[in-house]
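During the no-cost extension, the postdoctoral fellow (Dr. R.K.) reprocessed legacy sequence entries with the updated structure-token encoder. One reprocessed record is reproduced below for audit purposes.
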Amino acid sequence: MSITAFLNSIILLGSLQGFIIGGLLFRSSKGKPARFIAWLLLILAMACLKVYLLNIGLVNSTLGSLIDAFVPFIVIMPVGPLIYFYCLSMLQPDFALSRKDRFHFYPVIVDLFPHLAAIVFVIVLLFGWANPQHNNFGIWFDTYNVYADIPRWISLSVYLVLSFRMLRQTQLQKRESQPATAWLKEFLLVFAAFDLLWLVYLIPYTIPQYTDKILNAVDWYPIYLPMVAIIYWLGVRGFLIGRKEMRKSSGPILSEEQTTQLLNRLLHAMEHDKLYLDAELTLAKLANHVGSSPKVISGVLNQKLEKSFNEFINQFRIREIKHRLLNGEHKKYTLTALAYECGFNSQPTFQRAFKSVVGVTPSKFIQKQVEPA
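Re-encoded structure tokens follow.
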């Protein structure tokens, strides 16, 4: 067996590993963190499969070229957001991906655009609007895929920075145990190392006079062999984490009466005890106050109110701020001061929460509801 055939076999085995473990995580785990890992594995597996098919020459046939044009094997833009939301879900157990969070995945159009263009091109050919013997679509398709790696790399880099920053803030606030942050640090460092390696390869690759030289010299092996290593590493760790999440998800099931009683205790803690005014309020503190467990409370809030812990608490904080604004307290204190008094610990968080609940910014609310027209 030649070295090239051996390397291609490694890439194929890595792709199969990603599909198998990713599929198992989807089927066997209900934990949100494990689902993000599953998507990462499947995306990496698809990319490795594309390179394997390319290296064995399958895309050189008519059927192969059609499959390559229409099937989006390379879908990299979601990788950065998946890494970020995986870290967020590990650091905030009550986190739930909302509709507003989905805009992070809209740049996937960068990956899908050439395949959509291929469909349009085929339609144009079928209607006889173009000469199939004289077209440059194949050249355009290859050129686009070269330069599409630039926004893909930028996206991954930006979300890695955001993830490292979030992890750092969590460590400073000491909200998470050391094992959780230690694992996330390892997780992010591995992808950061890959990101740096990708940049080293990408710089000469995107320079026209060096593109073919790079591919002829080393092909895609400097990128995809490390990617295979990530698949094996992430597959083993991700599967173990997924099993752990599955075991943790099998908590006690409350009856309808018990759920109603718990919700009443939660509302009493907010409306009468005003726990939301505590800027250091956590899910664990609330659970201790009402005599339940964080996991049970998170499940009840998600299933019955369709709210995360933060959304549940912030609605009471915003209601308190609205009450104070209507009483004219904004004339005595700044908005930031009111936000801190009502339980928020940062102005950007307050601004986002207020607009999410009320629909307008605090200044707009004051202008429309408090100050005379």
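Residues 221-249 form the longest helix (29 residues). The radius of gyration is 26 Å. The remaining legacy entries will be reprocessed before the final report is submitted.
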